[in-house]
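Complex record, four chains
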Amino acid sequence: MRVLVVEDDPIIRADLGDALTAAGFLAESCGDGNEALFRGDTEDYDLIVLDLGLPSLDGLSILRQWRDNGRGMPVLVLTARGTWSERVAGIEAGADDYLPKPFHMEELVARARALVRRAAGHGSAIQTLGDLRLDANQMRVTQRGKPVSLTALEYRLVAYLFHHRDRTVPVTELLEHLYGDDESRDVNAIEAVITRLRRKMGAEVIGNRRGFGYYLRGTDE
Amino acid sequence: MRVLVVEDDPIIRADLGDALTAAGFLAESCGDGNEALFRGDTEDYDLIVLDLGLPSLDGLSILRQWRDNGRGMPVLVLTARGTWSERVAGIEAGADDYLPKPFHMEELVARARALVRRAAGHGSAIQTLGDLRLDANQMRVTQRGKPVSLTALEYRLVAYLFHHRDRTVPVTELLEHLYGDDESRDVNAIEAVITRLRRKMGAEVIGNRRGFGYYLRGTDE
DNA sequence: CGGCGTCTGTCAGCGATCTGTCAGGTTGGG
DNA sequence: CCCAACCTGACAGATCGCTGACAGACGCCG
Protein backbone atom coordinates (compact mmCIF):
# COMPACT_ATOMS: atom_id res chain seq x y z
CA MET A 1 0.00 0.00 0.00
CA ARG A 2 1.66 3.11 -1.24
CA VAL A 3 0.76 6.36 0.46
CA LEU A 4 1.84 9.93 -0.18
CA VAL A 5 1.98 12.37 2.73
CA VAL A 6 1.68 16.02 1.76
CA GLU A 7 2.55 18.23 4.72
CA ASP A 8 4.84 21.23 4.98
CA ASP A 9 5.83 20.90 8.63
CA PRO A 10 8.84 18.55 8.58
CA ILE A 11 8.21 17.24 12.08
CA ILE A 12 4.58 16.34 11.52
CA ARG A 13 5.53 14.96 8.14
CA ALA A 14 8.07 12.65 9.72
CA ASP A 15 5.59 11.59 12.40
CA LEU A 16 2.97 10.78 9.83
CA GLY A 17 5.45 8.86 7.76
CA ASP A 18 6.58 6.84 10.75
CA ALA A 19 3.07 6.01 11.88
CA LEU A 20 1.98 4.93 8.44
CA THR A 21 5.11 2.92 7.89
CA ALA A 22 4.58 1.18 11.20
CA ALA A 23 1.06 0.44 10.03
CA GLY A 24 2.39 -1.36 7.02
CA PHE A 25 2.14 1.34 4.40
CA LEU A 26 4.91 2.28 2.06
CA ALA A 27 5.07 5.96 2.91
CA GLU A 28 6.48 8.67 0.70
CA SER A 29 6.28 12.30 1.66
CA CYS A 30 6.56 15.70 0.14
CA GLY A 31 6.40 19.22 1.54
CA ASP A 32 5.88 21.25 -1.58
CA GLY A 33 2.51 21.86 -3.14
CA ASN A 34 3.59 21.83 -6.75
CA GLU A 35 5.57 18.67 -6.33
CA ALA A 36 2.57 17.08 -4.62
CA LEU A 37 0.34 18.10 -7.49
CA PHE A 38 2.71 16.54 -9.97
CA ARG A 39 3.27 13.32 -8.09
CA GLY A 40 -0.40 12.82 -7.38
CA ASP A 41 -1.07 13.23 -11.06
CA THR A 42 1.62 10.98 -12.39
CA GLU A 43 2.25 8.37 -9.74
CA ASP A 44 -0.06 5.64 -8.58
CA TYR A 45 -0.88 5.86 -4.88
CA ASP A 46 -3.33 3.85 -2.85
CA LEU A 47 -3.91 6.80 -0.57
CA ILE A 48 -2.91 10.43 -0.18
CA VAL A 49 -2.83 12.27 3.13
CA LEU A 50 -3.14 15.95 2.32
CA ASP A 51 -2.61 18.88 4.62
CA LEU A 52 -4.65 21.89 3.55
CA GLY A 53 -2.35 24.49 5.06
CA LEU A 54 0.42 24.49 2.53
CA PRO A 55 2.50 27.61 1.92
CA SER A 56 3.06 27.52 -1.82
CA LEU A 57 -0.16 26.08 -3.19
CA ASP A 58 -3.51 25.61 -1.52
CA GLY A 59 -4.33 22.01 -0.68
CA LEU A 60 -7.90 22.34 -1.89
CA SER A 61 -6.72 23.55 -5.29
CA ILE A 62 -4.39 20.61 -5.56
CA LEU A 63 -7.18 18.21 -4.72
CA ARG A 64 -9.56 19.84 -7.16
CA GLN A 65 -7.01 19.63 -9.92
CA TRP A 66 -6.41 15.96 -9.27
CA ARG A 67 -10.12 15.29 -9.48
CA ASP A 68 -10.46 17.39 -12.60
CA ASN A 69 -7.77 15.30 -14.18
CA GLY A 70 -9.73 12.21 -13.36
CA ARG A 71 -7.49 10.99 -10.57
CA GLY A 72 -9.66 8.98 -8.22
CA MET A 73 -7.37 7.78 -5.46
CA PRO A 74 -8.63 8.14 -1.88
CA VAL A 75 -7.58 11.41 -0.28
CA LEU A 76 -7.59 12.04 3.44
CA VAL A 77 -7.55 15.73 4.24
CA LEU A 78 -5.96 17.28 7.31
CA THR A 79 -6.70 20.79 8.44
CA ALA A 80 -5.80 22.93 11.42
CA ARG A 81 -9.12 24.58 12.07
CA GLY A 82 -12.11 22.36 12.32
CA THR A 83 -15.05 24.49 11.29
CA TRP A 84 -17.74 22.51 9.60
CA SER A 85 -17.90 24.81 6.60
CA GLU A 86 -14.32 23.95 5.85
CA ARG A 87 -15.08 20.28 6.06
CA VAL A 88 -17.86 20.70 3.59
CA ALA A 89 -15.52 22.55 1.26
CA GLY A 90 -12.99 19.75 1.51
CA ILE A 91 -15.53 17.07 0.83
CA GLU A 92 -17.06 18.96 -2.07
CA ALA A 93 -13.61 19.33 -3.54
CA GLY A 94 -13.41 15.55 -3.66
CA ALA A 95 -11.89 14.52 -0.34
CA ASP A 96 -12.85 11.07 0.87
CA ASP A 97 -12.31 11.78 4.52
CA TYR A 98 -11.49 14.63 6.77
CA LEU A 99 -9.46 14.80 9.97
CA PRO A 100 -9.15 17.98 12.05
CA LYS A 101 -5.91 18.74 13.83
CA PRO A 102 -4.96 17.92 16.44
CA PHE A 103 -5.65 14.23 16.02
CA HIS A 104 -4.43 10.96 17.43
CA MET A 105 -2.14 8.94 15.22
CA GLU A 106 -4.26 5.90 15.94
CA GLU A 107 -7.25 7.56 14.45
CA LEU A 108 -5.37 8.66 11.38
CA VAL A 109 -4.12 5.14 10.83
CA ALA A 110 -7.58 3.69 11.32
CA ARG A 111 -9.06 6.09 8.81
CA ALA A 112 -6.27 5.51 6.37
CA ARG A 113 -6.91 1.79 6.53
CA ALA A 114 -10.64 2.32 6.16
CA LEU A 115 -10.14 4.41 3.05
CA VAL A 116 -7.86 1.92 1.38
CA ARG A 117 -10.22 -0.86 2.30
CA ARG A 118 -13.20 0.99 0.98
CA ALA A 119 -11.42 1.83 -2.23
CA ALA A 120 -10.81 -1.86 -2.66
CA GLY A 121 -14.52 -2.44 -2.21
CA HIS A 122 -14.44 -4.31 1.07
CA GLY A 123 -16.07 -3.29 4.28
CA SER A 124 -14.17 -5.01 7.01
CA ALA A 125 -10.61 -4.81 8.28
CA ILE A 126 -10.58 -8.57 8.45
CA GLN A 127 -10.89 -10.35 5.15
CA THR A 128 -10.96 -14.00 4.37
CA LEU A 129 -10.32 -15.92 1.21
CA GLY A 130 -10.55 -19.65 1.29
CA ASP A 131 -8.79 -20.69 4.48
CA LEU A 132 -6.70 -17.55 4.44
CA ARG A 133 -7.46 -14.61 6.68
CA LEU A 134 -5.88 -11.19 6.65
CA ASP A 135 -6.19 -8.83 9.59
CA ALA A 136 -5.28 -5.33 8.46
CA ASN A 137 -5.24 -4.00 12.00
CA GLN A 138 -2.73 -6.41 13.40
CA MET A 139 -0.98 -6.93 10.08
CA ARG A 140 -1.34 -10.65 10.51
CA VAL A 141 -2.16 -13.45 8.20
CA THR A 142 -3.60 -16.71 9.41
CA GLN A 143 -4.14 -19.89 7.50
CA ARG A 144 -6.58 -22.47 8.74
CA GLY A 145 -6.52 -20.51 11.99
CA LYS A 146 -2.77 -20.83 12.36
CA PRO A 147 -0.75 -17.63 12.18
CA VAL A 148 1.70 -17.34 9.29
CA SER A 149 4.89 -15.55 10.19
CA LEU A 150 5.62 -13.05 7.46
CA THR A 151 8.20 -10.32 7.07
CA ALA A 152 7.07 -6.78 6.43
CA LEU A 153 7.68 -7.02 2.72
CA GLU A 154 5.97 -10.36 2.41
CA TYR A 155 2.98 -9.03 4.28
CA ARG A 156 2.71 -6.03 2.03
CA LEU A 157 2.66 -8.25 -1.01
CA VAL A 158 0.00 -10.55 0.39
CA ALA A 159 -2.05 -7.57 1.54
CA TYR A 160 -1.90 -6.04 -1.90
CA LEU A 161 -3.01 -9.23 -3.53
CA PHE A 162 -5.76 -9.50 -0.96
CA HIS A 163 -7.05 -6.05 -1.76
CA HIS A 164 -7.04 -6.92 -5.42
CA ARG A 165 -8.25 -10.45 -5.05
CA ASP A 166 -10.55 -10.17 -8.03
CA ARG A 167 -7.75 -9.34 -10.42
CA THR A 168 -4.53 -10.75 -11.73
CA VAL A 169 -1.96 -8.21 -10.63
CA PRO A 170 0.85 -7.43 -13.09
CA VAL A 171 4.37 -7.64 -11.75
CA THR A 172 5.05 -4.04 -12.71
CA GLU A 173 2.19 -2.97 -10.49
CA LEU A 174 3.60 -4.95 -7.60
CA LEU A 175 6.97 -3.35 -8.14
CA GLU A 176 5.39 0.08 -8.08
CA HIS A 177 3.48 -0.55 -4.90
CA LEU A 178 6.01 -2.50 -2.91
CA TYR A 179 8.82 -0.10 -3.63
CA GLY A 180 8.70 3.52 -4.54
CA ASP A 181 9.25 4.44 -8.13
CA ASP A 182 12.61 5.96 -7.34
CA GLU A 183 13.99 2.62 -6.30
CA SER A 184 14.82 0.44 -9.22
CA ARG A 185 14.27 -3.17 -8.45
CA ASP A 186 14.55 -6.17 -10.64
CA VAL A 187 11.46 -8.17 -11.50
CA ASN A 188 13.29 -11.02 -9.95
CA ALA A 189 13.00 -9.39 -6.53
CA ILE A 190 9.27 -10.00 -6.68
CA GLU A 191 9.80 -13.54 -7.83
CA ALA A 192 12.07 -14.17 -4.88
CA VAL A 193 9.46 -12.88 -2.45
CA ILE A 194 6.83 -15.00 -4.12
CA THR A 195 8.96 -18.08 -3.75
CA ARG A 196 9.45 -17.37 -0.05
CA LEU A 197 5.75 -16.77 0.42
CA ARG A 198 4.85 -19.99 -1.29
CA ARG A 199 7.27 -21.87 0.90
CA LYS A 200 5.52 -20.47 3.96
CA MET A 201 1.91 -20.75 2.88
CA GLY A 202 1.91 -23.52 0.34
CA ALA A 203 2.49 -23.26 -3.38
CA GLU A 204 -1.20 -23.23 -4.26
CA VAL A 205 -1.97 -20.01 -2.46
CA ILE A 206 -0.35 -17.67 -4.95
CA GLY A 207 -1.04 -18.38 -8.56
CA ASN A 208 0.71 -17.05 -11.62
CA ARG A 209 -0.46 -16.55 -15.15
CA ARG A 210 2.49 -16.32 -17.42
CA GLY A 211 2.80 -12.89 -18.93
CA PHE A 212 -0.04 -11.51 -16.82
CA GLY A 213 0.89 -11.53 -13.20
CA TYR A 214 0.05 -13.01 -9.82
CA TYR A 215 -3.21 -13.67 -8.05
CA LEU A 216 -4.37 -15.01 -4.74
CA ARG A 217 -6.56 -18.00 -4.24
CA GLY A 218 -7.82 -19.77 -1.18
CA THR A 219 -5.94 -22.99 -0.63
CA ASP A 220 -9.12 -25.01 -0.47
CA GLU A 221 -10.30 -24.13 -3.93
CA MET B 1 -30.73 7.30 -4.49
CA ARG B 2 -32.31 5.26 -1.76
CA VAL B 3 -31.17 5.93 1.78
CA LEU B 4 -32.08 4.30 5.06
CA VAL B 5 -31.95 6.35 8.26
CA VAL B 6 -31.54 4.32 11.42
CA GLU B 7 -32.16 6.52 14.45
CA ASP B 8 -34.28 5.98 17.55
CA ASP B 9 -35.09 9.58 18.38
CA PRO B 10 -38.22 10.37 16.32
CA ILE B 11 -37.42 14.08 16.07
CA ILE B 12 -33.90 13.67 14.82
CA ARG B 13 -35.11 10.89 12.53
CA ALA B 14 -37.65 13.21 10.96
CA ASP B 15 -35.09 15.98 10.59
CA LEU B 16 -32.64 13.66 8.90
CA GLY B 17 -35.31 12.36 6.58
CA ASP B 18 -36.36 15.86 5.63
CA ALA B 19 -32.85 17.06 4.97
CA LEU B 20 -31.99 14.05 2.85
CA THR B 21 -35.26 14.23 0.95
CA ALA B 22 -34.62 17.91 0.27
CA ALA B 23 -31.21 16.91 -1.02
CA GLY B 24 -32.79 14.61 -3.55
CA PHE B 25 -32.55 11.28 -1.76
CA LEU B 26 -35.38 8.85 -1.39
CA ALA B 27 -35.32 8.55 2.38
CA GLU B 28 -36.72 5.71 4.44
CA SER B 29 -36.30 5.52 8.17
CA CYS B 30 -36.49 3.07 10.98
CA GLY B 31 -36.10 3.31 14.72
CA ASP B 32 -35.62 -0.28 15.73
CA GLY B 33 -32.30 -2.10 15.65
CA ASN B 34 -33.58 -5.50 14.62
CA GLU B 35 -35.68 -4.09 11.86
CA ALA B 36 -32.69 -2.08 10.66
CA LEU B 37 -30.55 -5.18 10.64
CA PHE B 38 -33.11 -7.02 8.58
CA ARG B 39 -33.75 -4.26 6.10
CA GLY B 40 -30.07 -3.54 5.60
CA ASP B 41 -29.53 -7.19 4.89
CA THR B 42 -32.41 -7.73 2.53
CA GLU B 43 -33.09 -4.38 0.89
CA ASP B 44 -30.85 -2.57 -1.51
CA TYR B 45 -29.82 0.88 -0.32
CA ASP B 46 -27.39 3.32 -1.83
CA LEU B 47 -26.54 4.64 1.60
CA ILE B 48 -27.33 3.99 5.23
CA VAL B 49 -27.15 6.58 7.98
CA LEU B 50 -26.71 4.71 11.23
CA ASP B 51 -26.97 6.04 14.74
CA LEU B 52 -24.87 4.09 17.19
CA GLY B 53 -26.95 4.85 20.25
CA LEU B 54 -29.84 2.47 19.68
CA PRO B 55 -31.82 1.02 22.58
CA SER B 56 -32.53 -2.51 21.39
CA LEU B 57 -29.45 -3.49 19.45
CA ASP B 58 -26.04 -1.85 19.31
CA GLY B 59 -25.36 -0.01 16.06
CA LEU B 60 -21.85 -1.36 15.84
CA SER B 61 -23.12 -4.93 16.04
CA ILE B 62 -25.58 -4.26 13.27
CA LEU B 63 -22.88 -2.81 11.09
CA ARG B 64 -20.56 -5.68 11.79
CA GLN B 65 -23.22 -8.19 10.92
CA TRP B 66 -23.97 -6.48 7.65
CA ARG B 67 -20.32 -6.58 6.74
CA ASP B 68 -19.99 -10.19 7.77
CA ASN B 69 -22.88 -10.99 5.49
CA GLY B 70 -21.04 -9.35 2.67
CA ARG B 71 -23.21 -6.25 2.47
CA GLY B 72 -21.01 -3.49 1.12
CA MET B 73 -23.24 -0.44 0.92
CA PRO B 74 -21.82 2.84 2.24
CA VAL B 75 -22.63 3.43 5.88
CA LEU B 76 -22.40 6.79 7.57
CA VAL B 77 -22.22 6.47 11.33
CA LEU B 78 -23.59 9.00 13.82
CA THR B 79 -22.64 9.00 17.46
CA ALA B 80 -23.35 11.17 20.43
CA ARG B 81 -20.01 11.22 22.08
CA GLY B 82 -17.05 12.04 19.93
CA THR B 83 -14.13 10.33 21.59
CA TRP B 84 -11.56 9.24 19.10
CA SER B 85 -11.46 5.68 20.35
CA GLU B 86 -15.14 5.34 19.47
CA ARG B 87 -14.53 6.67 16.04
CA VAL B 88 -11.82 4.13 15.55
CA ALA B 89 -14.18 1.39 16.66
CA GLY B 90 -16.79 2.52 14.19
CA ILE B 91 -14.37 2.65 11.34
CA GLU B 92 -12.88 -0.70 12.18
CA ALA B 93 -16.34 -2.20 12.18
CA GLY B 94 -16.68 -1.16 8.58
CA ALA B 95 -18.15 2.32 8.62
CA ASP B 96 -17.36 4.43 5.60
CA ASP B 97 -17.68 7.72 7.38
CA TYR B 98 -18.26 9.08 10.81
CA LEU B 99 -20.09 12.15 12.06
CA PRO B 100 -20.17 13.20 15.72
CA LYS B 101 -23.29 14.80 17.14
CA PRO B 102 -24.15 17.54 17.12
CA PHE B 103 -23.62 18.23 13.47
CA HIS B 104 -24.93 20.58 10.83
CA MET B 105 -27.35 19.14 8.36
CA GLU B 106 -25.35 20.67 5.54
CA GLU B 107 -22.35 18.65 6.54
CA LEU B 108 -24.34 15.46 6.75
CA VAL B 109 -25.75 16.02 3.31
CA ALA B 110 -22.33 16.81 1.89
CA ARG B 111 -20.89 13.64 3.34
CA ALA B 112 -23.83 11.58 2.19
CA ARG B 113 -23.34 12.85 -1.33
CA ALA B 114 -19.63 12.14 -1.19
CA LEU B 115 -20.22 8.56 -0.09
CA VAL B 116 -22.76 7.83 -2.78
CA ARG B 117 -20.57 9.47 -5.38
CA ARG B 118 -17.67 7.31 -4.40
CA ALA B 119 -19.65 4.09 -4.36
CA ALA B 120 -20.99 4.85 -7.82
CA GLY B 121 -17.48 5.07 -9.19
CA HIS B 122 -17.32 1.37 -9.77
CA GLY B 123 -17.31 1.35 -13.52
CA SER B 124 -17.58 -2.11 -14.89
CA ALA B 125 -14.50 -3.35 -16.68
CA ILE B 126 -16.46 -6.08 -18.39
CA GLN B 127 -17.44 -5.79 -22.02
CA THR B 128 -19.52 -8.08 -24.15
CA LEU B 129 -19.74 -8.72 -27.86
CA GLY B 130 -21.93 -11.49 -29.13
CA ASP B 131 -21.18 -14.46 -26.94
CA LEU B 132 -17.74 -13.12 -26.17
CA ARG B 133 -16.94 -11.46 -22.89
CA LEU B 134 -13.80 -9.59 -21.96
CA ASP B 135 -12.97 -8.87 -18.35
CA ALA B 136 -10.31 -6.19 -18.22
CA ASN B 137 -9.84 -6.66 -14.49
CA GLN B 138 -9.04 -10.29 -14.55
CA MET B 139 -7.63 -10.03 -18.01
CA ARG B 140 -9.74 -12.96 -19.04
CA VAL B 141 -11.91 -13.80 -22.01
CA THR B 142 -14.93 -16.06 -21.85
CA GLN B 143 -17.00 -17.44 -24.66
CA ARG B 144 -20.50 -18.68 -24.03
CA GLY B 145 -19.58 -18.54 -20.37
CA LYS B 146 -16.59 -20.81 -20.79
CA PRO B 147 -13.18 -19.34 -20.12
CA VAL B 148 -10.82 -19.19 -23.07
CA SER B 149 -7.22 -19.82 -22.13
CA LEU B 150 -5.12 -17.17 -23.84
CA THR B 151 -1.48 -16.22 -23.62
CA ALA B 152 -0.55 -12.67 -22.75
CA LEU B 153 0.07 -11.70 -26.34
CA GLU B 154 -3.11 -13.29 -27.58
CA TYR B 155 -5.06 -11.53 -24.88
CA ARG B 156 -3.59 -8.18 -25.77
CA LEU B 157 -4.60 -8.64 -29.36
CA VAL B 158 -8.15 -9.63 -28.51
CA ALA B 159 -8.44 -6.78 -26.04
CA TYR B 160 -7.28 -4.33 -28.65
CA LEU B 161 -9.80 -5.57 -31.16
CA PHE B 162 -12.42 -5.44 -28.46
CA HIS B 163 -11.73 -1.81 -27.72
CA HIS B 164 -11.92 -1.01 -31.41
CA ARG B 165 -14.78 -3.31 -32.20
CA ASP B 166 -16.46 -0.76 -34.42
CA ARG B 167 -13.77 -0.67 -37.05
CA THR B 168 -11.33 -2.79 -38.99
CA VAL B 169 -7.90 -2.50 -37.46
CA PRO B 170 -4.94 -2.36 -39.86
CA VAL B 171 -2.15 -4.84 -39.27
CA THR B 172 0.39 -2.05 -38.97
CA GLU B 173 -1.60 -0.66 -36.07
CA LEU B 174 -1.62 -4.01 -34.36
CA LEU B 175 2.13 -4.29 -34.84
CA GLU B 176 2.65 -0.89 -33.32
CA HIS B 177 0.42 -1.64 -30.39
CA LEU B 178 1.54 -5.15 -29.57
CA TYR B 179 5.23 -4.43 -29.87
CA GLY B 180 7.13 -1.24 -29.32
CA ASP B 181 8.02 0.77 -32.38
CA ASP B 182 11.63 -0.11 -31.92
CA GLU B 183 11.08 -3.82 -32.27
CA SER B 184 10.85 -4.91 -35.84
CA ARG B 185 8.45 -7.76 -36.30
CA ASP B 186 7.20 -9.37 -39.43
CA VAL B 187 3.59 -8.95 -40.42
CA ASN B 188 3.50 -12.69 -40.32
CA ALA B 189 3.93 -12.61 -36.56
CA ILE B 190 0.47 -11.15 -36.31
CA GLU B 191 -0.92 -13.68 -38.72
CA ALA B 192 0.48 -16.46 -36.61
CA VAL B 193 -1.18 -15.08 -33.51
CA ILE B 194 -4.45 -14.70 -35.37
CA THR B 195 -4.29 -18.31 -36.44
CA ARG B 196 -3.74 -19.47 -32.90
CA LEU B 197 -6.59 -17.30 -31.68
CA ARG B 198 -8.96 -18.65 -34.28
CA ARG B 199 -8.05 -22.17 -33.32
CA LYS B 200 -8.95 -21.41 -29.71
CA MET B 201 -12.10 -19.39 -30.22
CA GLY B 202 -13.42 -20.52 -33.55
CA ALA B 203 -12.55 -19.16 -36.96
CA GLU B 204 -15.61 -16.92 -37.18
CA VAL B 205 -14.66 -14.77 -34.22
CA ILE B 206 -11.91 -12.81 -35.94
CA GLY B 207 -12.68 -11.55 -39.39
CA ASN B 208 -10.35 -10.21 -42.04
CA ARG B 209 -10.89 -7.75 -44.83
CA ARG B 210 -8.24 -8.30 -47.41
CA GLY B 211 -5.91 -5.34 -47.57
CA PHE B 212 -7.49 -3.57 -44.64
CA GLY B 213 -7.06 -5.53 -41.47
CA TYR B 214 -8.81 -7.52 -38.78
CA TYR B 215 -12.00 -7.08 -36.85
CA LEU B 216 -13.88 -8.82 -34.10
CA ARG B 217 -17.37 -10.22 -34.27
CA GLY B 218 -19.46 -12.21 -31.85
CA THR B 219 -19.69 -15.81 -32.95
CA ASP B 220 -23.47 -15.79 -32.95
CA GLU B 221 -23.92 -12.84 -35.26
C1' DC C 1 32.23 -1.11 18.41
C1' DG C 2 31.78 -5.81 16.84
C1' DG C 3 29.36 -9.93 16.32
C1' DC C 4 25.05 -12.17 15.12
C1' DG C 5 20.74 -13.15 13.00
C1' DT C 6 17.33 -11.72 9.85
C1' DC C 7 15.77 -9.71 5.79
C1' DT C 8 16.04 -9.07 0.93
C1' DG C 9 18.04 -8.06 -3.69
C1' DT C 10 21.03 -10.14 -7.11
C1' DC C 11 22.81 -13.79 -9.77
C1' DA C 12 22.83 -17.95 -12.42
C1' DG C 13 20.85 -22.13 -14.06
C1' DC C 14 16.71 -24.88 -15.22
C1' DG C 15 12.37 -26.09 -17.41
C1' DA C 16 8.37 -24.99 -19.52
C1' DT C 17 5.98 -22.21 -22.36
C1' DC C 18 5.55 -18.83 -25.75
C1' DT C 19 6.16 -16.90 -30.19
C1' DG C 20 8.62 -15.31 -34.43
C1' DT C 21 10.27 -17.31 -38.47
C1' DC C 22 10.22 -20.10 -42.34
C1' DA C 23 8.33 -22.69 -45.94
C1' DG C 24 4.87 -23.92 -47.97
C1' DG C 25 -0.39 -23.89 -49.19
C1' DT C 26 -4.81 -21.34 -50.08
C1' DT C 27 -7.70 -17.61 -51.36
C1' DG C 28 -9.44 -13.72 -53.79
C1' DG C 29 -9.28 -9.71 -56.63
C1' DG C 30 -8.05 -7.67 -60.99
C1' DC D 1 -4.50 -16.52 -64.90
C1' DC D 2 -1.33 -14.23 -61.76
C1' DC D 3 0.13 -11.96 -57.91
C1' DA D 4 -0.38 -10.40 -53.50
C1' DA D 5 -2.47 -11.11 -49.38
C1' DC D 6 -3.54 -14.34 -46.11
C1' DC D 7 -3.43 -18.88 -43.67
C1' DT D 8 -1.14 -22.65 -41.36
C1' DG D 9 1.98 -26.35 -39.41
C1' DA D 10 6.49 -27.11 -37.71
C1' DC D 11 10.27 -25.77 -35.22
C1' DA D 12 13.90 -23.55 -32.68
C1' DG D 13 15.31 -19.62 -30.23
C1' DA D 14 13.63 -16.36 -26.90
C1' DT D 15 11.26 -15.39 -22.88
C1' DC D 16 9.32 -16.09 -18.45
C1' DG D 17 8.99 -17.79 -14.03
C1' DC D 18 11.06 -20.74 -10.31
C1' DT D 19 14.57 -21.76 -7.25
C1' DG D 20 18.98 -22.27 -4.46
C1' DA D 21 22.93 -19.84 -3.19
C1' DC D 22 25.03 -15.83 -1.78
C1' DA D 23 26.18 -11.38 0.11
C1' DG D 24 25.18 -6.67 1.41
C1' DA D 25 22.11 -4.11 4.52
C1' DC D 26 20.00 -3.59 8.62
C1' DG D 27 18.80 -3.92 13.36
C1' DC D 28 19.81 -5.85 17.86
C1' DC D 29 22.43 -6.75 21.73
C1' DG D 30 26.29 -7.34 24.58
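Note: Helices of chain A lie at 10-22, 33-42, 59-68, 84-92, 105-119, 152-163, 171-178, 187-201.
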